[in-house]
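Field log, afternoon session.

UNIT: design team B
ACTIVITY: writing a sequence onto a fixed backbone
BACKBONE:
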């Protein structure tokens, strides 16, 4: 028999629905940046300026007294605050260009967490196949045994493509590493990057951008192993048996090699060069409790030191302009997880991300709808009389 419900039960069900709705509401309305909410009846916060990062040319918002952005010849560059992710200035930030060995930042973000540093591995011949002609090498040799940490120092200091090949094989192979790197880039919101060769060797269609590389550098600094390797100036690399030889970081802003003055406060990250990409560099420095990340791609003037000197001038400007510029955009929060069609091994490498405002709003709407449905269902639920089956 279908009967009406008492007002007491109806009110109870409605109260439960309202309680669930109110419990979800703060998660959606809270400021994702952690700012204090606007007091009831108080003024609404001013909307942030729209991002300028997809516009061509140099983008900067100078306040009164701010220093002028230095003129540099690079095809693309970005200056960003590592803590906040704010982009202080940029030039063609999303222009897609060959990244050279700065792509090794993405390789490290993808592969490093899954390979414990202390593991020893004896290199096999097949792991060194396919290394591109003219590649930078650290001297990995077939039949020699290395710790994973040795190989990573070969990647970060000597930009060794031979070390990359071995680590990629340990990660499941070259092709799977490409897939995982691509998934990692997407998870970080780096949409300009297309991975073909994990070591950054010139390959048809392989591109990234100053924006994406800055994202990789910023995220990398949060990983203690990544941060330690990219800040290492020199190390010993095993040569077989009981002997080793010194390797020096090819990032001249860090090492001071070839007449480049070391940059005060520099903490890495990675440089690169190929004939197609020209010189590229992702550099991070810390001064007075503030960390900046700068990416410079393919200077059009000067010699092999130009990429370092242009990065130097941009870092100097970034520190000098503290508090006197408004952001032209943001490195942003990582994007959502890949679709369920992504292979499990790839999805496992993608970090848990925060839900978007739209997702939270959907949860609230869903909760409200579910509550209403429960009330309707309860009102129409058949009630059994005592003693009946």
């Amino acid at each position: 028999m279908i009967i009406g419900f008492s007002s007491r039960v109806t009110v109870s069900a409605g109260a439960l629905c309202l309680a669930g709705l109110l419990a979800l509401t703060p998660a959606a309305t809270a400021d994702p940046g952690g700012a204090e909410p606007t007091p009831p009846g108080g003024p609404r916060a001013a909307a942030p300026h729209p991002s300028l990062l997809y516009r061509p040319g140099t983008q900067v918002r100078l306040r009164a007294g701010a220093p002028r952005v230095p003129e540099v010849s690079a095809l693309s560059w970005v200056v960003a605050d590592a803590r906040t992710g704010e982009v202080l200035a940029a030039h063609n930030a999303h222009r897609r260009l060959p990244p050279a060995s700065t792509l090794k930042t993405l390789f490290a973000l993808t592969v490093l967490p899954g390979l414990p540093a202390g593991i020893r591995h004896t290199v096999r011949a097949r792991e060194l196949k396919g290394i591109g002609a003219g590649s930078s090498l650290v001297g990995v040799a077939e039949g020699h045994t290395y710790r994973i940490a040795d190989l990573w120092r070969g990647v970060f200091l000597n930009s060794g493509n031979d070390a990359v090949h071995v680590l990629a094989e340990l990660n499941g192979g070259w092709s799977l590493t490409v897939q995982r790197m691509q998934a990692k880039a997407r998870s970080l919101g780096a949409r300009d990057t297309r991975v073909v060769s994990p070591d950054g060797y010139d390959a048809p269609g392989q591109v990234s951008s100053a924006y994406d590389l800055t994202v990789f550098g910023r995220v990398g600094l949060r990983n203690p192993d990544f941060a330690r390797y990219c800040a290492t100036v020199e190390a010993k690399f095993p040569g077989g048996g009981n002997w080793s030889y010194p390797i020096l970081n090819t990032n001249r802003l860090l090492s001071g090699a070839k007449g480049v003055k070391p940059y005060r406060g520099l903490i890495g990250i990675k440089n690169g060069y190929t004939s197609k990409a020209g010189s590229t560099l992702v550099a991070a420095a810390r001064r007075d409790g503030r960390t900046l990340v700068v990416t410079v791609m393919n200077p059009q003037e000067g010699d092999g030191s130009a990429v370092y000197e242009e990065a130097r001038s941009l870092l100097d400007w970034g520190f000098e302009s503290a508090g006197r510029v408004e952001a032209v955009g943001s490195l942003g929060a990582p994007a959502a997880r890949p679709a369920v069609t992504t292979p499990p091994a790839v999805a496992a490498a993608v970090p848990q991300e925060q839900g978007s405002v739209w997702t939270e709003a959907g949860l609230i709407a869903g909760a409200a709808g579910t509550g209403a449905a429960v009330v309707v269902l309860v009102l129409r639920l058949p009630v059994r009389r005592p003693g009946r089956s």
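LOG NOTE: DSSP finds eleven helices and twelve strands in the chain.
NEXT ACTIVITY: expression trials, pending approval
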